[in-house]
Amino acid sequence: MGRLINLQYLNIRNTKLALMPPGMENLENLRILTDFVLGKQNGSSINELGKLEHLCGRLAISGLQNVACARDAKEANLKGKMKLKELELMWGQDDHVADDSKHDREILQQLEPYTNLEHLVISFYRGTRFPEWVGHASFSNVVSLLLSHCKFCLSLPPLGQLSSLKSLSIIGFAGVVTVSDEIYGHCDALSKPFGSLETLRFEDMPEWEEWICLKEEAFLLLQELHIEDCPKLTKFLPKHLPSLMKLNILGCQKLGGLLPRAPRISELNLLECDTLQLEQMLQHCTHLEKLAIQDCSDLRSLPEGALPTTLKELSINGCDDLDYSKIHLYTSLESLKIEGGCHPLESFPLGSFPKLKHVYFSDCEELKSIPSLEGHHQHLACLNSLDIHSCPNFISFPEVGLSATNLTIPVVSACMNLKSFPEQMHSLFPSLKYLGIAYCPEMESFPQQGLPSKLKTVVIEKSDKLIVSMKRREWSLQALPSLTEFTIIGAEEIEFFPDEHLLPSSLTHLYILDLPKLKSLDYKGFQHLTSLHQLYIQKCPMLQSMLPKRLLTSLYHLHIYECPSLREHCKKGKGEDWSAISHIPAIRIDEELIM
User: Which of 150, 496, 545, 547 could form an S-S bond across to 125 if both were Cys, CB 3.0 to 4.6 Å?
Assistant: First the structure.
């Protein structure tokens, strides 16, 4: 490496390099050096960076725990590299305290960069406090700063003085108990603390109890605040965040107080906040559009008095004791997602939500039906997708009284007692384009009056009784003029597929997966599939041979995976069926692509 004296660009990002080679100081023409790695054997080689005067762009220095003395760090002369825009300084990820935290602080002190820097990352620093340059007002060009896993630091540097700072992340500060005025620094009369900050993240701070903010002029432009894994935090948040639009609170079990005054907040995500007082938290959120609540075990009811009329998206996950009786008041909802719980909700009248576009239910053990409101016909003109997963007691859709003329995607899976779709399905859901059914063992058949005529895609997985009805020719898929894609997965008893006239001539994509007893592809079932472009076959161990060439003339793509017998028959130039498939432009057999 030392001989490449004309080298200008060296990118070694994401490698496992343990240390730099000798002679790096000879590469005086280097402009871009992405990483400089210090090993135990050559920690003092950091001084070689001093000769690389033209470095610009990004530089990451790792293994700083191996630097023997501060003088070596000073000779790296980062302060003289005026064109560096991004700097990352990393110590090792060991768990023990450095013998002398003052030593690490002196190393970091001597690694002070030039003030033109725009992005700074400091990771696994082992000092108890930062040197003066971190957060100094002279770094007026810094727009993003990440301080990560500096777990021996007892306080934070005065980062509020960085006048251009837009993004700040503080992660893994295990020793910080209080965030107080020291973080704001000393700003002059014309500037405000964190005057440009838009995104702020605190994460993995196990001892943090209190956030003191006596400066109401701080964080005036803050738009996004993320607080995660701060289990002791009780006294929380600046009081006035006039620009805040998104708030994420995750793993703050003792947090139950009010939100700040944030009149513009539109998105609120709450995870594992056990002492949550949701109604109090929402009382100032007059513009809230998205609310997500997960694993908040103490939450018993949805707010009524503080209900935001602007709410469009509601997601609730793992709140098993939550009472949903007030949810019908959320008439502005466009997206509803409920996972787990629904106790004691047995029926969910979608007709209460005229603006709904997307509905998702999962692991709702008590949910049995989606009824229409008694005595009324509801037209869900906006409903586009309806997914019901792992609701073992779900047994029925409404037969009448509820229509969704724009519904295009219904997916039903692991609903162990569901037997059928509505008999009037073709008129209730006339715009249906995608239908997915998986792990519904009691599903017996499709409606006798047929499926909606606009249906383009059908996916059937692990639904044995429905497969049996296919053999009785009760599916009527051949009557669907728009059907272009069909997938069958996990049919245990099928030996021949597809039956004659099962699939329409409009089909372009056919996926056959996990049919352990499939012995052959049915000649009569394929003879009218003249538009078939892609055939995908996987996990059919007993399937041995391909169809005749004349039935495969329209194919552009053939994919065969985990079918050992078929693979042998289709080997290029050798297999018995190679002549039948050799005309296909793209063939993939397991990991081999044959063109």
Answer: 150
Residue 392 buriedness (CB in 10 A; 0-12 / 13-18 / 19+): middle
Categorize the per-residue pLDDT at 326 as very low, low, confident or very high, splitting at 50, 70 and 90: confident
What integer pLDDT is reported at residue 282 of this predicted model?
74
Residue 13 lies inside a defined structural domain of this protein: no
> What's the burial of 486, exposed, middle or buried (CB within 10 Å: 0-12/13-18/19+)?
buried
Give the domain range for residue 588.
484-595
Q: Which residue has the higher pLDDT, 172 or 400?
A: 172
- Which residues, 6 or more positions from 386, have their beta carbon under 8 angstroms from its beta carbon? 359, 404, 407, 409, 410, 411
Non-local (6+) Cβ contacts of 27 within 8 A are 1, 2, 4, 5, 7, 10, 33, 52
Instruction: Record the pTM.
Output: 0.83
Which of the 8 DSSP states describes residue 47?
A: G
Q: What is the mean pLDDT of residues 261-283?
A: 78
Q: 14: which residues sit within 8 A by CB, 6+ positions away?
A: none
Question: How many structural domains compose the chain?
Answer: 1
Tell me how crowded residue 212 is: count the other CB atoms within 10 A of its CB.
14
Q: Is the model's pLDDT at 99 over the cut of 60?
A: no
Pairing mode, strands 144-148 and 335-339: unpaired
**Nearest Cα to Cα of residue 127 among 149, 146, 101:** 101
Nearest to 545 by CA among 524, 520, 510: 520
DSSP annotation of 48 reads: G
Structural domain includes residue 508: yes
